[in-house]
Amino acid sequence: MPWTIRVKRKFNAAHFLTDYHGSPEPLHGHTWGVEVYLEAYELDKGGMGIDFVEIDNFLKDLLPDYKLLNELFDFSPSAENLAMWLYKKVKERYPTLKKVVVWETENCGAEYSE
Ligand SMILES: Nc1nc2c(c(=O)[nH]1)N=C([C@H](O)[C@H](O)COP(=O)(O)OP(=O)(O)OP(=O)(O)O)CN2
Ligand SMILES: [Zn+2]
Predict the structure, then answer these.
(1) What is the pLDDT of residues 52-101, one digit of tens each?
(2) Are strands 67-68 and 3-15 parallel, antiparallel or unpaired?
C-alpha cells in the first residue's frame, strides 16, 4: 500500500492484571502510549491521506484518560487486551486500519492486527 498514516497519543490510567502469575497485581498507573497505523490509497487535493487531526481527535474521545481500566472492561486490562479492544474500536471508524500498538511503559508494549 502506498501510504501508512501513523498517529500516536498518550493517556493516563490505572489498572491491575486480574491474574498475574496466579494472583491479582497491585493497583498501579501508567502513562500509556498508543499508536495506530492506517492505510491510505490516495491523497486529497491538500496532499493528505487521512487527516492526522481527525484521527487524533477520535483517539482523544475514545481513550479512557484518568480512569481505572478494571472498572471499564470485563477483561484483564493487559497491554495485549487493550490493543485488541482499541483495534476493534478504531477499525469501526477507519476500515483501513492495519494495526495498533499499546505501550504500557516506554519499553514494553503489545501490537494487535488481524
Ligand atoms: N505481556 C505483558 N506483560 C506484562 C503486562 C502486560 O500488560 N502484558 N503488564 C504488567 C504489569 O501491569 C506492570 O505494569 C508491569 O510491571 P513492572 O515490570 O513492575 O513495570 P513498571 O515499569 O510499571 O515498574 P518498575 O518497577 O518501574 O519497573 C507486567 N507484565
Ligand atoms: Zn501495569
Answers:
(1) 999 999 999 999 999 999 999 999 999 999 999 999 999 999 999 999 99
(2) parallel
Contact 100, 111 (CB under 8 A): yes
pTM for this model (two decimals)? 0.95
30 is an annotated ligand-binding site residue: yes
Residue nearest to atom 4 of ligand 1 (CA): 78
For the chain, which domains are there?
3-112 (3.30.479.10)
Q: What is the pLDDT of residue 1?
A: 66
User: Which residues, in sequence order, are CB contacts of 8 under 8 Å at separation 6+?
Assistant: 33, 34, 35
Instruction: Work out the number of other CB atoms within 10 angstroms of the CB of residue 100.
Output: 25
Which ipTM did the prediction report?
0.90
Burial class (CB in 10 A: 0-12, 13-18, 19+), 38: buried
Closest atom of ligand 1 relative to the 77 alpha carbon: 7
Euclidean distance between CA atoms 9 and 113, whole angstroms: 18
